[in-house]
Recover the amino acids of this structure.
């Protein structure tokens, strides 16, 4: 199975900050990497798929990059509604494993 | 607008069974792979099963293989998860999600809570 490791597990930041979350796969997944945002009590929301393609309706302050085993999610300028938990997921090979999540909280 | 709605959750005793349903609308169901993903209380997301549009390809996480069965009825625009031999550790919110071209989960339901407890 492919293991997905996110870092950091938690992150404190302020509105306006630039934030980067990383995700590392235990083996190559080419660009089959997805990013989700989840707020308490809600279903996850797809932000980025294929490592760098922004899902429709997602603000352009979100961006993704990487290929192979190392990936990043960047929020260019944090807004209040961005404080949430973020998950990466590989969809290259089943089981389609998720990272453990990054809890982005306000400083 | 794409709609995904899960149902069928509830309280069940260890060793019991439950069938979850997922009703979808506003897209051509038979052409999409579908996922079940779960989330235990206070924990992260866990992918548990996928089924292709024609049911030709089915995969399971090791944690549920042999106990859970995913199936679909394209005529009814519905996805199902038959859960047998339930364990306390199966307690979670179960989400149904549509998959896109990279098997990303692009539309999710709100989830249904399954509680396994004596």
């Amino acid at each position: 199975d492919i293991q997905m490791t996110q870092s950091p597990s938690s992150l404190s930041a302020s509105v306006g900050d630039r934030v980067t979350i990383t995700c590392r796969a235990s083996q190559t997944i080419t660009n089959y990497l997805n990013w989700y945002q989840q707020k308490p009590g809600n279903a996850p929301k797809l932000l980025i798929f294929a490592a760098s393609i922004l899902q429709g309706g997602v603000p352009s302050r979100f961006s993704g990059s990487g290929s192979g085993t190392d990936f990043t999610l960047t929020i260019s300028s944090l807004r209040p509604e961005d404080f949430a938990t973020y998950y990466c997921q590989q969809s290259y090979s089943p089981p389609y494993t998720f990272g453990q999540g990054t809890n982005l909280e306000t400083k | 607008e794409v709609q995904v709605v899960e149902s069928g959750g509830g309280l069940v005793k260890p060793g019991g069974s439950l069938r979850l349903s997922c009703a979808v609308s506003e897209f051509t169901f038979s052409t999409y792979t579908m996922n079940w993903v779960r989330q235990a209380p206070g924990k992260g997301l866990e992918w548990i099963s996928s089924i292709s549009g024609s049911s030709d390809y089915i995969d399971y996480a090791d944690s549920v293989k042999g106990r859970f069965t995913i199936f679909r009825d394209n005529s009814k625009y519905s996805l199902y998860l038959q859960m047998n031999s339930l364990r306390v550790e199966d307690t979670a919110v179960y989400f149904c999600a549509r998959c896109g071209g990279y098997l990303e989960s692009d539309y999710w339901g709100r989830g249904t809570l399954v509680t396994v407890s004596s």
